[in-house]
Amino acid sequence: MTRTALHAALLIALASPAFDARAQNADQAPDEDAKTLDQVIVTGTRASDRTVAESPSPIDVIRPEALEATGTTELATALARTLPSLNFPRPAISDGTDAVRPAQLRGLAPDQVLVLVNGKRRHGTALLNLNGTQGRGSSPVDLNAIPIAAIDRVEVLRDGASAQYGSDAIAGVINIVLKGKAGTGSVNARAGQYSAGDGRTVQLSGDAGFGLGESGFVHLSAQAVDSEQTDRARPFQGTPGPATPPLGVVVQRQGDPAIEQQAVGFNSEFGLAEGVELFAFGTASRRDALSNGFFRPAGDTRNIPSIYPNGFLPQIRNIADDRAFVAGLHGETAGGLAIEFSYNYGSSDLEFNVENSLNRSLGPTSQRNFHAGALGFTQHVLNLDFNKLLEVGWLDAPLTLAFGAEWRGEGFEQRAGEPASYINGGVRLPNGAPAPSGSQVFPGFRPADARAFDRHSYSIYGDLEGEITDKLSLGLAARAEQYSDFGSTTSGKLSARYAFSPAFALRGTASTGFRAPSLQQQFFQSTATNFISVPNVGTVPFDIRTFRVNDPAAIALGAEPLRAEESRNLSLGVVLTPLKDLYITLDAYQIEIDDRIALSENLTSTAVRTYLNNNGFPDVGGGRYFTNAIDTTTRGADLVATYTARRGDLKMDFTGGYNYNKTTIDRIAANPATLQAIDPNAVRFGRTEVGRLVVGSPRSKLFLGSVYSYGPWKLTSNTTRYGSVTVRGATPALDQTFGGKWLWDLALSYTRDAWEFTLGADNVLDEYPDEVIFANSTFGQLPYSSSSPFGFNGAFVYGNLRYRW
User: Fold this and answer.
1) Against a cut of 0.85, is the pTM above it?
2) How far apart are alpha carbons 571 and 495 in whole angstroms?
3) CATH tag for 5-804 (out of 3.40.50.300, 2.40.170.20, 3.50.50.60, 2.170.150.40)
4) pLDDT digit string (tens) for 592-634?
5) Please, are residues 281 and 165 in contact by the beta-carbon 8 Å criterion?
């Protein structure tokens, strides 16, 4: 479909809210007329009565209605459509990253944003993203493991907050507040399909709250999703031959994986005694995701025709199990000191299975399905927090003093696959060359890779904030942490807000922050066999590894123990309320990050191989490792505006948001002396990885929207313009910039008594990203880039039926 300026104008006119800044406390009923400025927040502050308007840092508060106003069943996708500063691409053919996709805030790494649930730290995923996608080298939180049915609201702090919450809060904080009210609930059924005829999705979900004692509650939620895969691949367009796919037939697949997922959650409180309450909450999910690799033609040397006469498309089945549980006590002494003690447990387990494949080195007796190993990550956290209002004689309002301590223990485990998934059986290729080892598409983890690692940390923090005058509020926070693996770090934050009038306020923050190197980045190791031509010898198999940083071979190539990333954040913004129902914020920011942790390029030159083979590593042909080698600066701005109007029985809510951010590289560390001595021409960070950091995510994202309510009818729409992204290849000739695109989501709802019926379409104009150039398309088979910020599936039409009580 041809896109024109007229389309863009239509989208702007009918745009719907990307996010609704109206939110309630978990124990309050929704107030449809509540003003944005009056919403009480719990993120970025220790005060109990801080509102959105009074916050010295930019806060987005997203209601469940906004999350559910599209056809998606994924929390991360819903957030990407409601937050201009969030990027959530949908990579394909990227191993485990197809199943556990990372999200970015303000263009930074996925693990540079901290995720909380009910204010408690959420554990990261076991997966380490190693393929050529945004977020390469990160192990972020799996947002899609949290059922949308369990969520009361999401508060997003777009500001550095390491001094308040610890590691990872460089780009900001996403705090997911769970539903917590007795006597309410809902049942929801949703079904949809892409206009291309695939991707059928069915979702069933529900939640219900029950009373416990006089004032307690338990709120339960559940969600089940069944999504078929999508496929936008095309036939092979190269020169036909025995080792090429057949012409005119689509044998490759490019799109979303097939997913079956079940998730449950609960949130509860119970009064034990006067002023003492027990609280507990948790979530659990299981995801079965089937994704695709690259097709092996019938005549490909990697195929065995007696097993697959027509070639084969290997697939990876990931089983992701995610568990989280938090329990604690909170109360208040007679002197007004609030005390809270809590225990937090989280685990992520990711299993790799290979299907429809073979181990070429085992010959015709090779099996087709393999268990290729698993990854596991666990987190244990103990918190002791204190909070007290301090009366200061010369101040009109008391100050809020908060302080506390935290112990955190983390564990990472890598488990080997079955022997057939990694061994070399000795059967050679028809030309006599050695065959690759292990299961094709994903060789199993070897016993030498399989180990368990752990660490612990201690931290203390202090936080003081309050109203100095009726116009000026100040906040001060500091935190010190000690890690058992890399040492100690400290961070601080100063925030201020000054209200020149009820209609105009100025706010700003200055802070330092950090992100501790994850256990996955330090200790993940995988091995794949590459075949390299050696003079006077022929083709020889070499093990190419993703090294642990303490591996002797990695140290020989210049690897060093990882250090914490360190950041300096500055923000300055204005809050405007020129009209009663109009709320505008504009915030500019700068984030400098030193010693960013990145995954190097493969180091496989002849000089590197020769050195390793002559110095005690005869089977190692090179590899890659993580290192603190890059400094960056990110500058940008966020603009948010909301407005509510009434015309008789017609209510109209308008929302707009715009984010611009630009990352530049300030420094790439010179090669270590050991690597320089081995290979003076070695390149640890090539142009492709640099491109991911500086131009791989949209520099701009615009949202314009409206909701029209009239009696039982409600029309919602959502327009988003995604800015351009650039993918850099190994050479400039392979570079490509993908232009900005407008997407429009539209839904019409009818409510009768407790029932609500919705018919909607996401990407209603069936917009696709620009196609890749032929040189990057695997001979025309893969027409779209995995870096597209909105995927490449086209329009999705859905229906929804909901019953509330």
Assistant:
1) yes
2) 9
3) 2.40.170.20
4) 999 999 999 889 899 998 888 888 887 788 889 999 999 999 9
5) no
